[in-house]
Every structure is written in C-alpha cells, then in structure tokens.
Amino acid sequence: FALQISGEAQELFSVRHGPVRAARILPAPQISAQKCDNFAEKRPLLGVCKSIGSSGTSPPYCCVDLYSLRTGEMVKSIQFKTPIYDLHCNKRILVVVLQEKIAAFDSCTFTKKFFVTSCYPCPGPNMNPIALGSRWLAYAENKLIRCHQSRGGACGDNIQSYTATVISAAKTIKTGLTMVGKVVTQLTGTLPSGATEEEILAHSNLRRSPLVPGIVTIIDTETVAEGQVLVSEDSDSDGIVAHFPAHEKPICCMAFNPSGMLLVTTDTLGHDFHVFQILTHPWSSSQSAVHHLYTLHRGETEAKVQDISFSHDCRWVVVSTLRGTSHVFPINPYGGQPCVRTHMSPRVVNRMSRFQKSAGLEEIEQELTSKQGGRCSPVPGLSSSPSGSPLHGKLNSQDTYNNFTNNNPGNPRLLPLPSLTVVLPLAQIKQPMTLGTITKRTGPYLFGAGCFSIKAPCKSKPAPQISPSKSVGGEFCVAAVFGASRSWFANNSGLKREKDQSKQFVVESLYIISCYGSLVEHVLEPRPLSTAPKISDDTPLEMVTCPRASWTLVRTPQWNELQPPFNANHPLLLAADAVQYYQYLLAGLVPPGSPGPITRHESYDSLASDHSGQEDEEWLSQVEIVTHTGPHRRLWMGPQFQFKTIHPSGQTTVISSSSSVLQSHGPSDTPQPLLDFDTDDLDLNSLRIQPVRSEPVSMPGSPRPAADRRGVSTVIDATS
C-alpha cells in the first residue's frame, strides 16, 4: 500500500503465495564506475521467503526468491539447506538469516560475499536477531573473545524496585529447581517431554564449548573479508568494528538508528533495553569504545520484544513487545537526560547550551568529579559510573585535564566514559485488535473526522475480536514506524497546506500496524511535566498521545490480485526510476535509456562539459575543515568590553547598551555613515582620539604604558 499525503491508501501490489515468512522490497543498490547493477532493468525487486520454494522440492522456507515488480518474472532464486528466519537488505548487501548462521549477498550481482556461523541461538520470536545499518551489521556472538573486546559495554542496571526483588527471589528458587532437574537429566541422558527450547539448546550444546549469552559483534560489510567471518583468538580483526557484552541474558532484538552510530539491544527478559554509542578505531576492535548511554526501563514483568523503531532525528525510540504494546522513549544521540531544551524544539539541539558553554560549568563539574571520585559523591574513590560497574574504571585526573581544557572533548574513546542515564517510557500505546474495540481505557480514540478506511468492493467479515492474551500463545504482532502526518490534510482540507504547517509538530507521527491489518496514526505531543513548580530548560517531559487516523488494510479472499507487469506510471516504478536516475548522476555515469520522470538534462550536460569545474566540486565536497576550537567564553559575551567608534572629526563616541546612538534610529530615520573609508586623504594616525568616559587601563604584561597607546585606532575599555 502507498499512504499518500492526502490520506488515501492505494494498493500497489498483492499476490497470494500461501504462507510467507519474510518479504522485503530491495532498495536500489549503490553503483559506481567499477560496480554496475546487473538487474537495473528489472528493478524494483521483491525478496520473498515462502513455504513452497520455486523449485518445489526443497524443504519449506529454505529458498529466497527474487521477483521483479516491473515484469513479474522471477530473476533469481537462492537455495539453502536449513530454514530461513528473516531477510534484511540495504544498498550494499542482502542478508539472509538462518538458524545460528548469517549469509550476505552482494546487492548488484547476488553472489555470496561472506557468512557468519557463530551466532548465539535465541528462543524467539527472532530466532537469530541481527541489526543491519547502512554499512554495519550487528549480530549476537556466542562467546566473548578478550583480544577483540572493545572498551566499555553494558553497565549494571541499578534500578530494582521491591517488586523486582520479589520476582527475582522467586526466579532464583525456580532456577535452583531447574538446575537440579538438569543435573538429573544429564545423568540419565534424557530430556523430559515438556522441555523448553532453552533447555533443548542447552542440552545440545553440552558437548560443545560453553556459549556466552549477551555478546554483540559489529562487522563492517565493506571491509570484511570474503568467505567465513570468524571471531577467535587466532583471527585478525579485519572488518570487526566492535565486540562487547551488551546483556547478561541472550539477546532478543537489535536495531541501528538511521545514522548507524547508535545500537539498541534487548534481552529475552525484556525489562531493560540498552542504547550504545559505537566509537570505532581504524586499527582494531579492541581500540574501539562502546558507550552505554541509556538504559530504557520498561517494567518488571517479562515481555518479548518484536520491533524497534527510531525517529529520523534519533530523539525518540519506540520498542514494541509481543503483548501489542509500543513504548515511546526519549533519548539524545549524544546521551544525557532528556528535557524541555532537548525535546521541545523541532530541531536537534547541541549537547551543551550556549550558557553552559560560556559559563564553564563543565569544568567546575569535572573538578568536583575528579576530586571526589564519584559524580559529586561525598564518598571518595567511587567509580564515575552510576552503577559502579567494574567495566568503567575510575577517573584519571590527568585524562580529565587533557580532555576538558579549552572545551576540547579530546579523544572520546578514552576515559572518562559518559555516565549512564535511566529513562522511563513517556507513553505506552496499546494497539487494539480491531478498530471497533477501541475504548477510553486505551486512549481517547476519536472516530469521524480524520479517520479513513479503504472502501472494500464487497462486505468483508469483521476480524474475530480476540483479546491479546487469548490469541495464539498470547502473542499479538505489531510494527511501528515514524513518518510525516497523513491525516493533517483531511482534517484541514479547507486550508492551504503551507510550508509552516509542518513545523507545528515537534515529533513526527507514529504509525502502528497490527497483524489484523489495522493501521493507526498516533500524534505525539511532548510537553513539560505538569507537576513541575516552574518550567526551565532542564524540566522533565511528559507526553500526550492521541490517535488521529486509521486505515483498515485488510484484503478478502474475493479481491483480485494486483500483479505485475505494471504500467510505466505505476508509483512503484516511478519511484524506482527516479532513484535509479539520480544514483547514476551521483556516480558520474550517464543514466540508461529514458531519464525517468524527473528530467534534468541540462544539469548533467553542464557538469560533463566543464571538467575542471566538476573536479573542483568533487574535491570540495569531500573536504572537512575544523579551523579552531572556540573558547569557553567569547569576548563579546562578557560585560567588561565596550566598543568605540572613530569619527572623522576626531571625536570618539562610546557605544554601550544604554547609548542614545542605538536608540535614535527609528524605521524612518536613515542612519548616517560614521566613517567614510573611501576618502583617500584619511590618515588614522593624524586623528585626535579622546576617550570620553575613562582612560584605558594598562594590562598586565603589556610593554607600553597606556599613554603611549592613544594613537591606536580602536580602544577596548577593560575597566570592570
């Protein structure tokens, strides 16, 4: 389906394949002069893993079929011996996820690039959780290799309430009983009939070396070697970006943010989700640093995570569990407590405000920290990490001095590591089974204006109204994504949609779809905490959510399928052509055939005709210059300076904030030029400069007394 800005949902493609385990539309691959796309005229491509493969002879879910949405034919089929669990893709590779294995294929040729066989088995719902960014691939490693381990990693979570302690105690008793059972099992060599998956896995792994849960390895898909990727004591670290412990339990779900620098991981318990910042080193993964910025605390009951989604500006992350609840957390890409200053503006703000930068607050805080050990803690020798984790060493005063002199953060991979922040969800959105079952309990759902539904050609039967706890295994699948609002136009159809209208929303709309085909757009409005006595930059946040529109994306068995080949003006083909055309332009190649829907012949011709200009532009686009590091307090931020202007008559006027010169010019007055620099006969040394208010004070270390400096053209008065 395509959800247009007007709010209408248009069906683009549909096919009945029987049970389908995974399906992805593959993005247009990255091309260059050396690397061309073998399937350019067939794109867009759809990768499908279904129960009956193209050959028909292989076991179910054991092959990936790539179909062309332009012509409808199958262009490639990749066979495997074991079942496929999921497909992931970016502009560089197509990743096929198998049990304890990962296989990666080139996106232009679909030849095998590399494969990983050392994944930790997870009980589900993701049997083998991975995260694929624009370039990096993260997966759960089955053991920790010390020589490749990066600095940092997970801190302990120091947030256990009374409930959690009671639950933990109960679990300890259960674990003790389970361990007794396992010992008996090992002695007899049999498994009880009601054994869980984890126990079966543990039993099958007794003969192998013990596996370590919760370890994450991140590899660079560009630099990693062909063939098997093996993280071991003997292997070199080519292509390994980071290798670190993320949880104590097995990892259940992972996701990169849009920039690929933050990684969110969750474990099988689902109490806490960890947000890591990955700071790489070009030499080896052991030199990289992994900063544990946030622990997102969901609650004390167990839940399996099925989906993680970031907003485009990386200030919001939504984690959905199998209970059908989506938890909305505020975060900053650089860490720190989310507050009014960071999350109430439409744009991302810097880590430090102008006031903090100029006042030198960080220096004072660092001095206190280095003197006392903990973060302003009265007990000397405490670790700087709030959890007191052994992974985070004590602060070194020399490091602190090096890193924070002249507002220079220094090397972020060295100590001190940033402190961990615990964040609770601002909103918990429960997706209803069917749109008719929405009640006041789940939020103020309003139907009428702004709620759409697709007109079905025939009456469809309503979906069975089941509560989440009674559905299959108590599981209720949902997925969430952030995007521009589609309901605005319908609610304000009389008004013209101006550019400023998009600025009224601080957060993009959140779209949540359930396995029953109901898609709901939720509007998120963060605001300062209502119980706060006064609102300042550091005031905590609360959030109001309300559903704005809904679509029922459910097909009935009687509907006709929408299958390719499609017309040239089909939205999928138009989008693919436009992307392909501009990718050729960016690579400096001539786009093949017709230039697509958006024609820009003249831009390409002008670039191609003037080779020198093109080379200059390419060179300049890759230059990044940092000329200097700014001081803590700019000269003009302080109150001790006054700027004086020289008049040709020899009179000197002092301009201060209360000066009448600044206040005299109204909108009708034409300001007179103070000094005409175009006159040839002007000699600054001949001007008689008389300070009006005070004599300049001689500064310490100045070789000349103040009396000798009266010939200088501009006098900066530093009396205060």
Automatic annotation (TrEMBL):
Domain BCAS3: 612-654
Compositionally biased tracts (Low complexity): 377-391, 652-668
Localization annotation: Cytoplasm, Cytoskeleton; Nucleus; Preautophagosomal structure
One GO CC term, this protein: phagophore assembly site
Organism: Sinosuthora webbiana
Self-association state and partner proteins as the record states: Interacts with histone H3, ESR1, KAT2B and PELP1; the interactions occur in a estrogen-dependent manner. Interacts with beta-tubulin and VIM. Interacts (via C-terminal) with PHAF1; the interaction is requrired for the association with the phagophore.
Keywords assigned by UniProt, alphabetized: Acetylation, Angiogenesis, Cytoplasm, Cytoskeleton, Isopeptide bond, Nucleus, Phosphoprotein, Transcription, Transcription regulation, Ubl conjugation
The BCAS3 WD40 domain, residue ranges: 2-433
GO biological process, one term: response to starvation
Region (Disordered): 369-410, 652-675, 690-720
Top-rank lineage group of the source organism: Eukaryota
Protein name (Swiss-Prot/TrEMBL): BCAS3 microtubule associated cell migration factor
Gene3D superfamilies: YVTN repeat-like/Quinoprotein amine dehydrogenase
Entry's family note: Belongs to the BCAS3 family.
